[in-house]
């Protein structure tokens, strides 16, 4: 028998010993293809017929890699009885056809992972990165056209660096060559401007026209006020949108939100302004309370330097908007650089400044519900009249109520009277905080912060288009 026949006989013997007892050599022709398939499954390398000796079957672990080394020896043509080999159970319960090993399934799964899943995940990741880069590139395009809707490079920069710096030429164009004057005062002028999107703005300019008259003190006040106003960010405050500073021609301007319904002072005391009913006045009171509390709780806290009815503007739907124009008086002062309303929380005067705002708020409440001017120089000032009513036991202040307010609520008026009495205490230490005042008023009036804010006011700064280059100014 040749070497090839000896090898086949040895393999047949292995199969016969482990599978079926009594199987003889006559089964060789039928069994040979099955064993060839089994040998192929075990990844045995083919050897030449001349060099293949008779194999001696080694024990194979029951859980292996799917292949095993075959070593053989030939001793005088004697074929020792092969040892029993542990093989995986055959599929379908047949002992003659071993099933693929666990490693085979693992390799198959890994092959799918490397060929399909990982490339697909990589493509999705690359697509996401590409979309993000495209969005960033679109948002970083150069500014085009004057006062276009959208976010310019300068406006995007404002998200990081604060309030954007604008060019005088752009403000001049928006304000019709600065001919659209809506208010003029000894120290500043207010212009109305309109963007191409239709959004209205207020541009406030100093009356100083020469850099020689603009001292270091003036510049310090101007910049500190910009920093303070940029931190306000409250819907019941006239927020700062941008500023302009140029030397030729000399320019110092601030761009603010525009409130179309004038001041609270005008609405309460001017005959040609629309009358405000009880509910409208309660909404104004709550908007003021929420905004002043917000200012006092900033870090560092901010006290309004001149809180009165002329410093409160009204939005299109009648909501209160506090404005701070004090900087235009401060820049021409000759004394020590003022605080611009911003207070050091560790300074000894912080409590006095905040308590001063509380007192002013109490006076505002009196003016709103009575419709009378709080003239402190008058012999019978509004505060004195209120104290007389309270001392006489009439805490509801009915005798001071505006006679046009036929729809007032007694319970709300009673709470307002108690708050006024607490706010106008002569000793600042006895006055409540704005947080306490706001809580008491909200409990009685029931107007939330959302209801007190302008419903028709867009996000002005999002409409503002900045054209000035980074090096301008």
From TrEMBL:
<dbReference type="InterPro" id="IPR011009">
    <property type="entry name" value="Kinase-like_dom_sf"/>
</dbReference>
<feature type="signal peptide">
    <location>
        <begin position="1"/>
        <end position="21"/>
    </location>
</feature>
<keyword id="KW-1133">Transmembrane helix</keyword>
<feature type="region of interest" description="Disordered">
    <location>
        <begin position="63"/>
        <end position="100"/>
    </location>
</feature>
<dbReference type="GO" id="GO:0012505">
    <property type="term" value="C:endomembrane system"/>
</dbReference>
<dbReference type="GO" id="GO:0004672">
    <property type="term" value="F:protein kinase activity"/>
</dbReference>
<dbReference type="InterPro" id="IPR000719">
    <property type="entry name" value="Prot_kinase_dom"/>
</dbReference>
<keyword id="KW-0812">Transmembrane</keyword>
<keyword id="KW-0732">Signal</keyword>
<feature type="domain" description="Protein kinase">
    <location>
        <begin position="176"/>
        <end position="445"/>
    </location>
</feature>
<dbReference type="Pfam" id="PF07714">
    <property type="entry name" value="PK_Tyr_Ser-Thr"/>
</dbReference>
<protein>
    <recommendedName>
        <fullName>Protein kinase domain-containing protein</fullName>
    </recommendedName>
</protein>
<feature type="compositionally biased region" description="Low complexity">
    <location>
        <begin position="63"/>
        <end position="74"/>
    </location>
</feature>
<keyword id="KW-0472">Membrane</keyword>
<dbReference type="InterPro" id="IPR001245">
    <property type="entry name" value="Ser-Thr/Tyr_kinase_cat_dom"/>
</dbReference>
<feature type="transmembrane region" description="Helical">
    <location>
        <begin position="112"/>
        <end position="135"/>
    </location>
</feature>
<dbReference type="GO" id="GO:0005524">
    <property type="term" value="F:ATP binding"/>
</dbReference>
